[in-house]
Amino acid sequence: MIKSVELWNWESHEHTLVDNLSAGFNLIFGESNAGKTSIIRAIKLVAYNEFNPKCIRVGSKTCSVEIKTDKGRVKVTRPSNEWEVEKNGEPTQFFEKIGKVVLPEVSEILGMSMVRLGDAEFPVNVMNQLEGHFMLSELNGKTASGSVRAQIIDEISGLSGIEGLIKEVSLDNHRWGREIKKMEERVEELSSQKYDGIELQEESLLLDKVKQNLDKNEYYIVSAKVLTDLHKEALSEISCINDIESSLSGLPDEVTIDRFIENAVDNLEKVADARFLKSEWDTTSNLVQEIESTLIKELDIESILQSLSQASSSFDRLSRLRTLNSQYIECRGAVDLCLNNLAEIEDEIFDAKRELNGILSTITVCPLTQQAFSPGGCNAAIDSDVFLDDNQ
To answer: What is the CATH number of the domain that holds 46?
Structure first.
């Protein structure tokens, strides 16, 4: 319900406030050209966005109209086309240059909107004093034709809706007929393209065989991958075995070791003899010294002859001892060389043993026979070897 209408520089109104409007009938009366119709045109400006630049008061550049209702407030300023829309309990909204459209917010606040009757829209809430009853005589200031009046009557009676429904049903019926015809043609086309049942059965069997072959192929691929991994492991184990054989090939054989041991035994026997001869040599040397000291003290012939005889025998023994000493020196050099060789052989055998134990400890399955080694089997065999020390 409109409560008040306020005008600024609108036609003949410099500032006019029309308030205390009731919910029922409101009568605006006055002399001719007092501005009664101007109020109606001001309401049309706000409700239907109808504006004529001649409505601006002479001498003014802008005009404004504000309408307050029980739902809010709307104010329009022209010619800038500025709108202030304020619903009750909500902030004010501002709009500019909206064209000729009617804002839905304005229609909601005023409760007034254009009504479509037939093909035309009418402001049925506001009528000028010269318009015919039910607007059948004139439409927007022009004489209404018979067809327009018929459309209006159909709209009021509800017949226009029925005609629209009949038209829509007819169009739907026609459209469905065309779709049914297209579907029948499509069915015939698909029937001509249908496969024979026997061929489909043969293709189904062929697809089953292809699926079985694919399953077998997948099994073969997995088996090939496993075999490839085993082949890589075998190559790795063969490489380790080749390294072991290469390390073992650098060690001396048993015949060479036995020969070195026999030479060492012979040399040790010669050393024992040389030690005995050295002891005899020391004893003879002491005896010669005693003889010399005795000759100095006693120079009797018998003692001298005895001493000479003893000295001769001592010299003979000394000559033999010198010969044995030279042999002892030669034997000692040979023994030292043999001992050095034995020490080097022992070091090489110890390094080879440690390397072999390290390699064998990593092998749990024989790569050739695929049999597992017993725990500690290889290491026990290596640890049972006996090496000669320096004392032997």
So the answer is: 3.40.50.300
